Amino acid sequence: MPKPLIALDADGVLLDFHLGYAGAWERAFGERPRERDPLAYWPMDRWEVDRLDEAGRARMRAVLDEHFWSTMPPLPGAVDACHRLHDAGFELVCVSALESAYEAARLRNLRDRGFPIERVIATGNASETRSPKADAIEALRPVAFVDDYLPYLRGVPGQVHTALVLRAPNGSPNTGEEVTTLARSVHQDLVEFVDHWLAQEVP
């Protein structure tokens, strides 16, 4: 019998995109930014960084490269939380709104950090009313899907348990009526989701 699947987002669920962003800024501009708001949802609000002109944006894009996507640090407790799911009999797959060119880099990042994950599906992040991840989730048919961005739960099949990680509240998109209509459960981080999930009678 195949193991039941759990699909996990990467940035904000498994990996610390904010710290990765600060490192990329330092690579691009030679100075590590100071923290402005540790509770900010978006990295541009968390770090004391300038709004970039076109030349600055080009410099920043240049460092969002293979190195960036393969060296992001894990979020506290995330590796252990994944091992708890794995040891409980679940297969884990990462579904990330990432360009397909960096799919292998993301998988290498997860494996190097010790995550028990052998597959990454990069969906791109086209802005639509339906989640760019919905088709992948429909094809995978996982028992649960965990993401930290509420709009990415739109269009996910109803039989999938959708878990929303809230994380930082300031400027968060994870508010409003859709929290209750799209998310079957809500958690502060992946560790809290795993505590909740493993306490349930799941298939």
TrEMBL record:
This is Phosphoglycolate phosphatase-like HAD superfamily hydrolase. SUPFAM superfamilies: HAD-like. One of its GO terms (molecular function) is hydrolase activity. It holds the Pfam family Hydrolase. Keywords: Hydrolase. It comes from the Bacteria. Transmembrane segments: none annotated.
